[in-house]
Amino acid sequence: MGCSWFSCRKSGGKPSEVDGEIAAIDNVKIYKYKEIRQATDDFNSLNKIGEGGFGSVYKGNLKDGKIAAIKVLSAESRQGVREFLTEINVISEIQHDNLVKLYGCCVEGNHRILVYNYLENNSLDKTLLAGGYTRSGILFDWSTRANICVGIAKGLAFLHEEVRPHIIHRDIKASNILLDKDLSPKISDFGLARLMPPNMTHVSTRVAGTIGYLAPEYAVRGQLTRKADIYSFGVLLMEIVSGRSNKNTRLPTEYQYLLERAWELFERNELVDLVDSGLNGVFDAEEACRYLKIGLLCTQDSPKLRPTMSTVVRLLTGEKDIDYKKISRPGLISDFMDMKVRGPVETKPEEVNRHSYTNPSSSSNASSNSGTRDNSNAYSSGASSAYAGNTFSSTI
Ligand SMILES: Nc1ncnc2c1ncn2[C@@H]1O[C@H](COP(=O)(O)OP(=O)(O)O)[C@@H](O)[C@H]1O
Ligand SMILES: [Mg+2]
C-alpha cells in the first residue's frame, strides 16, 4: 500500500505512527524509496534536470503513469520525520492554478524527497532568459509574456494574502517559475524554507545565487516581510519584459544591472528601449512600459512604498492606474560576493555600510526606514529573526 493516498482527517493534520512507521498523513502521498529509484532509473544522471540550493532534481516516471519532478533534498535539509511530514502536509494543502502541485514525498531512513508535478516547458531561466525562441523553441510573444506576468502575480498574491498564515516565498526568481504545456506559469519551491532545520544558519551560499533578486532590507538587515518577495517579483517582471537577466556581465558596465538601467531609462522617459529586442517590435508599447514601471514600483527602496501583490495584479491588468510621478529609485545592493547572511540582531550599522547597501534615494527616506519594520505589513519580530532558517510562517 506504499503508494496509495492516505487520508487521516482524524489525526488533525499530524502524521500518525504505527510501530515506528509512518502510516498516514492528510492529503500527502507517501512514496516508497524503491518507487522513486525505479522512477528515476536509480537516479540516473540522464534524468537529472537540475541542481538547486536544496538538492538535485530528476525527471521520473511514477508507477501510476504520472511524470514527476523529483527533488532529492540535500543532507542539510534533513529534519525529523514527524516535523518533515507536518510541513509537507501544510505545503500540499496550498493549491492554486499558478503554483506547482506537490504530489507527495518519500521519508524513508535518511531520505527526504519531494515529488512534484512535472512541468513540460521548463523554467523561465532556461527558456526565456537563456535565449528565448532560438534556444528553447518557445515563442515568448508579448501576450504570452503578459499572461506569464499576471499568472505569477496571482500566484504570489494568493500566497501572500489568501493562505493563512500568509506565506513569504523568499526565493522568487526565474528558475522558480515553471511553464506548463500551455505556457501558463507555476511558482515552485514555496514553503521549502519550512523544511530547513531551525538551527541551519548557513544559507549564504543558497542566497548568493539569487542575490540579484534580494530586497536590500532583507539582504542587509534580515528584515523579512512580504515586501521582500514583492521586490523579487519586480526584478522578475523586468526580466520577463526585457528578456534579460537582472545582471549580465557581458554587457558594457553601465548596462549590466537591469534595475539601474531601468531607472536611468525611466528618468529619461525612454523605458521602451528596455523591452526585449527579440520581440522584433511586435508588442503593445504602452502595456510593456506600464509593466516596467510596475517593476520599478515593486523594487523601490522603501518597502512601504511597494504595492501589495493584489494591487500589482490590478495594476498589471489595467484595473488600477499608477501614479508614475511617485515612483522612487530602486533599492540596490552592491558588493554581492562578500556579503554574508546574518541575523539582524548582530548586524551593526557600520556593518551595513561595509556591505555596501547603496540607497540611492533620499537620506530622509533611508533613515526613516532603517531599523524599523515594514509597518505596512506589521510582522512580528519573529519575522526578521526567522531570516536565516525558517522563512515561512513569519506572519501574524
Ligand atoms: N516541477 C518541475 N518541472 C520541471 N522542471 C523542474 C521542476 N522543478 C524543478 N525543475 C527544474 O530543475 C531546476 C532546478 O530546480 P531547483 O532545485 O528548484 O533549483 P533552483 O530553483 O534553485 O534553480 C529548475 O531550474 C528547473 O529547470
Ligand atoms: Mg527551484
Outline the structure in words.
By secondary structure, this protein is of the alpha+beta class. The protein has 2 domains: 5-117, Phosphorylase Kinase, domain 1 (2-Layer Sandwich); 124-387, Orthogonal Bundle (Transferase(Phosphotransferase), domain 1). It has 13 helices and 12 strands. Strands 3-7-8-6-5-4 form a 6-stranded mixed sheet, sandwiched between helices. A two-stranded antiparallel sheet has the order 1-2. The longest helix is centred in the middle third of the chain and has 21 residues, at 142-162. Magnesium ion binds at residues 52, 175-176, 188-189.
Task: List the secondary-structure elements in sequence, H or E.
Answer: EEEHEEEHEEHHEEHHHHHHEHEHH
Bound molecules: adenosine-5'-diphosphate, magnesium ion
Q: What share of residues are in beta strands?
A: 5-15%
Distance from N terminus to C terminus (CA atoms, Å) equals 39 Å
Brief summary of the model shown:
It is built from 13 helices and 12 strands. It has 396 residues and is an alpha+beta fold.
Can you tag this structure with a few keywords?
396 residues, alpha+beta, Phosphorylase Kinase, domain 1, Transferase(Phosphotransferase), domain 1, six-stranded mixed β-sheet, 31% helix, disordered N terminus, binds adenosine-5'-diphosphate, binds magnesium ion
Q: Topology, pairings included?
A:
Blueprint: E1 16-18, E2 21-24, E3 29-30, H1 33-39, E4 48-52, E5 55-61, E6 67-73, H2 81-93, E7 102-106, E8 113-117, H3 132-136, H4 142-162, E9 177-179, E10 185-187, H5 204-208, H6 216-221, H7 226-242, H8 258-267, H9 285-298, H10 309-316, E11 332-333, H11 349-354, E12 357-358, H12 363-369, H13 382-385
Parallel strand pairs: 3-7
Antiparallel strand pairs: 1-2, 4-5, 5-6, 6-8, 7-8, 9-10, 11-12
The protein binds adenosine-5'-diphosphate and magnesium ion.
